[in-house]
Amino acid sequence: MKFWFAGVMTPTPAHSSQTNQQSDDLPAETTTNTKRHTLPLVARIPTAKIFEDDWRSRTSPKHPCPVILIHGTGETKACWAGLGTELRELGYAVFAPDFGNRSTDAVAESAAQVGAYIDAVLTVTGARKAILVGHSQGGILARYWMHFLGGSSKVHQLICLSVPNHGTQPGGFLPDIALTPHVQRRIHQLITAWFGPSGFEMLSDSPLIDALNATGDTIPGIHYSCITTRSDAIITPVESCFLDGRHSNNIYVQDTAQHMLVMHEDMPYNKHVRALVVAEIENCPPLDPEIPEAEVPVPFSLRAKRALRVLRG
């Protein structure tokens, strides 16, 4: 028996022996904790693809902002292999971090790691601002860093792929009649076991979601795009992905592909979604030119003293 939740197919305890055997295939950063059974289940599932950073990448006058791709819960940077390669072929400098035990740590911890990574990318590339693309919890981490960790001045554009910007309902995939107190307790136990501390922070009534939107969904000067799918069974209601604000472009996948079935976990991989992301990046207003700080006027008396010193040699 298997469950689909938060974009990941997770093994039940009956498959624990298989999971243990697979732990040797995990990235080195998670192997130790996995063998000790201290990681949530979604952080123990091996990945099939690889996407590596190239720290020689530099921005250009045509593409002055590096693109940083932030994965969701239980994922790794490998989920960006398709989109990252396509953006690189268009001339963008593209980077993607792994962090937070596959994004199962508390949001504050993962967001701090992501923020440090973004700072490193900006330093290496010499860029002033970045374009961020986040899937699911990845978008929450980007917004947390922007709102609470001083990152807003370093972001030109944020693209959210099925991000629970206004939270999701626990057991949103179940009808209300099935949400008995016993079922709700079981759901909370499963959230803890599968997703770790970050699982509860994605819920619509969590203090973190309330704080993120307390002063408005968006930050002036940043361009937002929110792309979601009507067939998302994880983020419920699906409209909770959308952000209110003059500079937020809210899109359903089905707006341009009416009958396309795209699940929550498909968003980073789906070819049509990738094309939407590329279009949002390509059509974003250009980065404003850097305005030099105005010089502080020097009082006439001080200028006169300096002139006298020059004349006297």
UniProtKB/TrEMBL annotation:
Keywords linked to the UniProt accession: Hydrolase, Transferase
Region Disordered, annotated ranges: 10-32
AB hydrolase-1 domain sequence ranges: 67-268
Any GO molecular function: transferase activity
InterPro entries referenced in this protein's UniProt entry, alphabetically: AB_hydrolase_1, AB_hydrolase_fold
PANTHER family the UniProt entry points to: SLL1969 PROTEIN (PTHR37946)
Protein name: Putative acetyltransferase/hydrolase with alpha/beta hydrolase fold
Taxonomic placement: Bacteria, Bacillati, Actinomycetota, Actinomycetes, Mycobacteriales
